[in-house]
Every structure is written in C-alpha cells, then in structure tokens.
Specification:
The protein is mainly beta. The protein has one helix at residues 258-269; strands at residues 6-11, 13-17, 21-27, 38-46, 56-61, 64-72, 75-79, 84-87, 92-96, 101-107, 114-122, 133-137, 144-146, 150-156, 172-179, 183-188, 194-201, 203-206, 209-212, 215-219, 224-229, 234-240, 248-250, 253-255. Bound molecules: fe (iii) ion. Fe (iii) ion binds at residues 56, 59, 61, 66, 103, 105.
Amino acid sequence: MNERKVATKLAGQNTTDGAGVRLKRFIGTNEISFLDPFLLLDEFKNDDPKAYMAGFPSHPHRGFETVSYMIEGRMRHGDSRGNKGLLTAGSAQWMTAAKGIIHSEMPEMENGMLWGYQLWVNLPADLKMSEPKYQDIPPEKIPEFETDDFKVRLIAGSFEGKPGAAETNTPVIYFDIIFKGEGIFEHTFPSDFNALVVGVTGDAEIAGEKITAGDIAVFAEGDGVRISGKEGSRLLLIAAQPIGEPVARYGPFVMNTKEEIYQAFADYEAGKLA
Ligand code: FE
C-alpha cells in the first residue's frame, strides 16, 4: 500500500456559532475553508451548560447535507415540516437539507458533558434542489467492526466488506475508530478521495506525524491510510469523492452560483424553505 502521508496538520480553531455555542472548527476556517465535498466540520465539547444550552435555534439550510454524530449528551432536533428527533450518545443523524429546511438543534443536557461533531457535506448540482431527507440512526443501528486492537463504528462507508449505516448521495466514508490497545488500523479507498482524521481522544500516529485530540490532519493522495494507536486513541476518519463543481456559499446556503444564493435568500424570506 502506498500509504497516505499527512499533508496538513492543525489544531481545531475555537469559535462560537448558533446562539453562542462554544466549539472547535476544523473545516470552514481560514486555513481549511473547503475540502471538497466537506464544507464544515465542528466539534462541540463542553461540560459547562452555559457554553452550549443556548443551542442552535431555528435556522435554514439549502444545497447540502448536515451529519451530526454524538459522543456524549443529547440533542433535540425539530424542523418546520414537523420532523422531530432526539440524538443520544452514540447516534448519528444524516440530514439531506437539499432544497431547504428550517430546523433547530437544541441540547437537552442540563448538567454534564455535551460532545459531538457536525459535518457539512456538499451535494452535486442535480441534487441540491431535491426533496429533504432524514436518516436518524440510533446507536444500536451503527454497525461495528471489532478486532483485538480496535473497534470501528461505521457511520458511512464499508469496512472489510461490512456496510456502514447511512445511505450517502455521493461516496463518503465516516468511521469512528476506537483503539483498545496498541495496534494499526489500515483502510484502502480510491486515491482521488479527499480524506482527513480528527483526534477525538488520546493521540495516534500517521506516517510519523503525531495526531492529538483536537487536531485535524488532512491526508495527501495515496492508496490508503495507516493509523497507529494505543489504548485511549480515538479518531474520526472522514473521506469522500470530490464533487468538483463550483461552490457559492453564504452562511447556511451552499449552491453553485451567486444567483442561486440570492434565490435561496428570496425563497427563505418568502417562506418557501419551511
Ligand atoms: Fe443546522
């Protein structure tokens, strides 16, 4: 295997979003504004309710998908079409906003840790105005693959022939890799996929580079990835086939042209996203 090296390694950037939720941003920053098809990747991890209870009240999305993955805590989801859901620890939600939704994402934790990730995945032009769709995936519906050294939770994409939980619109890999002891995780996927890891806990090593919790490492091209970990090492491996289309984005709208962004605002104001 021509092992992928680390092209860029950075610490996540502290910021706030929603109604003042403190988070760490990995994609959607000045350094990594876009890694086709990934538009944004945030970690919210806080044990102080003041830093998260205000949540993400009612806001629109159009033109892409949001993928939420919870490590600890609970998040209540609701949208303007009457869809509802409760994301519990270990669950995932793959929301295809497509032509538009207006939703809220509110923490239910009054005490203790709220810890999760949100990834934005772009949609190709021909799916941007398709019908919105939800995949609410409870913890027990996320397939796991276990060896003596690690456990992999398969949110999306196949590992060793075992398919992941979510149906994706374009090829996407989303694995939660939890090392149980010293070991090496390897996975091969097409060399044109953009790929990254985020350190969740502990530290791990990729091609001689140390990846610590709170880091993002973007991979260079290659046949596959090799990650050395030990007890306590936990990482998200996220990779996808690039879409390769022009991106026009403004806040919660991600389209192909500026005109389509203006249209999204006009449609939102006219109540057409609800
Ligand atoms: Fe949202």
